[in-house]
Design a protein that fits this description.
The complex is a heterodimer of chains A (about 325) and B (about 325).
Chain A: E1 16-24, E2 29-38, E3 43-47, H1 54-62, E4 70-77, H2 89-95, E5 100-103, H3 107-110, H4 117-127, H5 134-147, H6 153-157, H7 166-178, E6 184-188, H8 196-213, E7 216-221, H9 224-230, E8 233-238, E9 241-247, H10 248-253, H11 258-267, E10 315-316, E11 321-322
Parallel strand pairs in A: 3-7, 3-8, 5-6, 6-7
Antiparallel strand pairs in A: 1-2, 1-4, 8-9, 9-11, 10-11
Chain B: E1 22-34, E2 46-58, E3 62-67, H1 73-80, E4 88-93, E5 96-97, H2 107-112, E6 113-116, H3 120-123, H4 130-140, H5 146-156, H6 173-185, E7 191-195, H7 203-219, E8 223-228, H8 231-237, E9 240-245, E10 248-254, H9 255-260, H10 265-273, H11 277-281, H12 286-297, H13 301-308
Helix pairs in contact in B: 4-5, 4-6, 5-6, 6-7, 10-12
Classes of the chains: A alpha/beta (about 325), B alpha/beta (about 325).
Chain lengths: ~325, ~325
């Protein structure tokens, strides 16, 4: 994706603006030329299978990449007058948990097992100076637990993470993430480990929490149905690239990229052929850094030919477009 | 709680249209685990994973078991496979009792029943080549002609014969699950027990494995018992569905009926809470999912259940 539009000022309408993001190990490129923006109150989904680079994109924005990974490009956050990738650790940790925060897939590893729930929430309030005193922070922590619909917050507050169920832990994570009223909330597969009934409640809390604060949401998932339920707009990632972007309804009903179409067909368990077979995408996702050159999807694509050995470039606008030589609407194939 | 035997005894076998005899007859099955002692002199309390489960699986049936974490569905499958001793009750496999039998008396079960697990990386020995992984059950049961059978099975699950010389870590998740299936089917079992076999897979690969399972079940005339937390997957794979909760059976019935017209409030709630593309496109957000689930259940019971359940890790 090329950054065709001029870069908006930090005070502009977008809460998050990512331009030309690259993440690599030095030898392998894992995320390549990723550009997108998220406006206030907007819920943007990032869809992709394992190895597509969606979590790396999130970690790069948060400044949480592992030491052996390097990110380059331009990441801007509303109200922050410096670029995020080149900022020092002190500047970035001042933003994390305050201006931007993140909910991870596995709350058991994200929460500190040695700290009671109340102290973990209070900590983020004290560190960023939202509350100056321990007692005030503790009271705010209990309010936050109540805000994420945990019954009996007084009792939950005194518990350790291992004493909570998966759904309860994930609500605690959300309470921590929302504590300081972030501009940007990133959720990485927040409900993948949860039961469906608990998942529905968790999704509602995320959507409500973001709406109450007019925050921007970047919601990462491999589950199209979940993303379609939560988000307004979707980015489809494959092989470290954004291959298609668009408004949810349009992208799900009229996909342009063959990968999006394949993913949609494989997700719909109600559509089977005469033999009862589900539509599939040939082959499997290559390991990171082993995607073909040119179009990253070409070795699995039913429409690919020699033209696809060069990267097709981006067609359309940043908000709605695709990267494909032979989009679904075209005559080819 | 619905009578689990209702309806299903009248469901004819899906593939042949004839009512074949039961493969499994389960009656009053209980399995409980001891909890840490709370008092020095009192016996340690026990938690019931299965509390009186009764059902039947007929030959050729594709029998689905759905439930949320902690419902006892995996424990039930492990009991059926003879991997977990039941505390009470009876499991008859083709008329032979397996509860209370010693391990070495379960040879008949091992020959006829094989399992596929959720995480193929954990269930395949990382130090064994694929050839040995697939051959191991054949050797264990003294079946001759193991090498030819290995090649045949790899072909059947859509793997290159060259795969035989490689190690599990050299494969993707979907390919590993194919290896696990090849190993399970190598000894020509008549029953395949699958515990969340596609839950760890990517969407595009999940469809491949589901298609493969459907083909193999038909080709080898298998009886399939399929456990999953995902009602939409079970509905796709199975002809009969049993819904479990808290170690008991909530409702059983033909798959379509259970999905379209669930009788029990809990089943209705489960169906209503599943996000689907179709529902999302008709404008349903998370608030609608929660509302529908709560409305069908006659109150938000799941929040209470979430609270009541002790966390269970390692699932």
């Amino acid at each position: 994706m090329t950054a065709a539009e001029p870069f908006a000022t930090p005070d502009g309408p977008d809460v998050l603006r990512v331009s030309g993001l690259h993440v690599g190990t030095g030898r392998d490129t894992l995320v390549e030329d990723v550009s997108f923006s998220v406006g206030p109150g907007e819920r943007v989904g990032l869809i992709g299978e394992s190895g597509s680079g969606k979590s790396l994109t999130a970690l790069a924005i948060m400044g949480l990449l592992a030491d052996e990974l390097h990110a380059s490009g331009d990441v801007r956050l509303r109200g922050v007058d410096h670029e995020l990738l080149t900022a020092g650790e002190a500047e970035r940790s001042a933003l994390r948990g305050d201006t931007m925060s993140m909910v991870f897939q596995e709350p058991m590893t994200a929460l500190n097992p040695l700290m009671r729930v109340e102290r973990q929430i209070a900590e983020v309030l004290l560190i960023h100076g939202t509350r100056r005193e321990r007692a005030a922070a503790a009271a705010a922590a209990r309010d936050l637990l109540a805000a994420v619909d945990l019954p009996d917050p007084e009792r939950i507050a005194r518990r350790y993470p291992h004493q909570l169920s998966g759904g309860q832990r994930q609500r605690v994570m959300l309470a921590i993430a929302l504590a300081n009223g972030p501009e940007l909330l990133i959720c990485d597969e927040p409900t993948t480990a949860l039961d469906v009934t608990v998942q529905a409640q968790m999704l509602r809390l995320i959507v409500d929490g973001v709406a109450d604060r007019d925050a921007a949401l970047l919601f990462i998932s491999h589950d199209l149905a979940v993303v379609a339920t939560v988000c307004d707009r979707v980015l489809v990632m494959y092989g470290g690239r954004i291959v298609e972007a668009g408004e949810v309804r349009q992208l799900l009903t009229r996909p342009q990229h063959p990968y999006t179409q394949g993913l949609l067909a494989a997700s719909d368990l109600e559509a089977v052929d005469a033999l009862g077979h589900l539509p599939t995408i040939e082959g499997s996702v290559p390991p990171g850094g082993r995607f073909p050159d040119g179009c990253v999807f070409r070795n699995r694509c039913p429409r690919g030919d020699e033209r696809c050995t060069t990267w097709p470039g981006w067609t359309g606008t940043e908000r709605s477009g695709y990267a494909c030589w032979y989009p679904i609407g075209s005559a080819h194939g | 709680m619905a009578d689990p035997m209702a309806d299903r005894s009248r469901v004819p076998d899906a593939d042949t249209g004839v009512d074949a005899g039961p493969v499994y007859e389960v009656a009053g099955l209980e399995r409980s685990f001891p909890q840490p002692r709370t008092r020095l002199l009192a016996p340690s309390p026990r938690i019931a994973a299965l509390a009186g489960v009764s059902f039947e699986v007929r030959a050729g049936q594709r029998f689905g078991i759905v439930g949320e974490s902690g419902s006892g569905k995996s424990t039930l499958l492990r009991c059926l496979g003879g991997l977990e001793p039941a505390t009470a009750g009876s499991i008859r496999f083709r008329g032979r009792e397996i509860v209370g039998k010693r391990e070495r008396r379960l040879g008949f079960l091992r020959r006829d029943v094989q399992l596929v697990f959720q995480d193929p990386m954990a269930s395949l020995d990382p130090r064994m080549r694929v050839r040995h992984i697939v051959r191991e059950p054949l050797v264990a049961q003294g079946t001759p002609g193991a090498d030819a059978r290995v090649a045949e099975m790899l072909e059947a699950v859509g793997l290159d014969p060259a795969a035989a010389g490689r190690f599990p870590h050299q494969f993707s998740g979907g390919q590993r699950q194919r290896i696990a299936i090849a190993r399970a089917l190598a000894v020509r079992p008549s029953v395949l027990l699958a515990d969340e076999p596609v839950s760890a897979l990517d969407v595009s690969v999940r469809a491949q494995i589901l298609n493969l399972l459907a083909d193999l079940v038909q080709r080898f005339e298998l009886t399939l018992v399929f456990v999953s937390h995902d009602l939409s997957v079970v509905r796709h794979v199975c002809d009969t569905i049993t819904v479990m909760r808290d170690g008991g059976i909530v409702e059983s019935g033909p798959a379509e009926q259970l999905w379209e017209r669930p009788r029990q409030p809990y089943t209705r709630q489960l169906v209503a809470a599943v996000p689907t593309l179709r529902r999302a496109l008709s404008g349903a957000g998370p608030a609608e999912l929660v509302r529908d689930a709560a409305a069908t259940a006659g109150g938000d019971r799941s929040a209470a259940a979430d609270e009541a359940h002790d966390p269970k890790d390692g699932r």
